[in-house]
Amino acid sequence: xxxxxxxxxxxxxxxxxxxxxxxxxxxxxxxxxxxxxxxxxxxxxxxxxxxxxxxxxxxxxxxxxxxxxxxxxxxxxxxxxxxxxxxxxxxxxxxxxxxxxxxxxxxxxxxxxxxxxxxxxxxxxxxxxxxxxxxxxxxxxxxxxxxxxxxxxxxxxxxxxxxxxxxxxxxxxxxxxxxxxxxxxxxxxxxxxxxxxxxxxxxxxxxxxxxxxxxxxxxxxxxxxxxxxxxxxxxxxxxxxxxxxxxxxxxxxxxxxxxxxxxxxxxxxxxxxxxxxxxxxxxxxxxxxxxxxxxxxxxxxxxxxxxxxxxxxxxxxxxxxxxxxxxxxxxxxxxxxxxxxxxxxxxxxxxxxxxxx
Length: 357
Hints:
Layout: H1 2-26, H2 51-71, H3 87-104, H4 110-114, H5 117-136, H6 140-143, H7 145-169, E1 172-175, H8 182-193, H9 196-207, H10 225-241, H11 246-249, H12 252-268, H13 283-304, E2 309-312, E3 321-322, E4 325-326, H14 333-351
Antiparallel strand pairs: 1-2, 3-4
């Protein structure tokens, strides 16, 4: 189990990192600008807003919304939480308040404001675990501690992969960062990046405790081996092409890693995270997608007033903003949440020899 789980993570990382470089190399383009580490994104102008791709890209997002509404348990009552709110949850609230204040207010030293993201999201992780503990009497932090702590370093590597892929499409860039060199930039980035997977995983576990989000059964979907190979091939080919056609293929930044992990899990592991779909149980797909969307709304909200922040430049859809993000961009959090779940599940099989379902 552990060796195969390690193989899934290593192969997914390797293929996702190399595929865009291979695509550019096959086209005879210079790889030098993409081999820098840590990767840094340039500010580039993209294709202007266009209604046709905007509407076409909305269709899968709308279909996902309908699927989720179909799966909600009608009339389910949340009820009263049976356990006490733990004291360390209050520490999480205090960290959120302190981080939020530091991020948004210029009365504090600039260096404090630049580091506010990490304590803010550590506070969020503590709070979501406390809310889950209050409802279920357990949380990821208290009952799966080894795996949960391993999510932090894994998350830093996970998001550096997306920073690498963003070099080929330049959909976001940062401002307000002051780094004395590459190593300083790497450390400043790794600390907040390490909170991404724990935040999504903690939100997902909390959602799993809400009766209405237990979800009703949907049609059976049984992935077969040819589907796994197709997913793996589509992910690799899509990522190999994003550097050649970044304007048209920028969604592969979010779909490519998902397809790679999905295909590799299906091929190398006895049972994958999405195996319950074969029983009509869509919770492993829909719940982490919703968890990432909820985290995404908070990421974008807290980013909005921060000194160190990110900005978007997305071809064809750069309109109707909610905070810095163009509205359609929030649809990207849905596949991203499933990618986070697949990565976290594979890591659980590596650390604990068991998956998340």
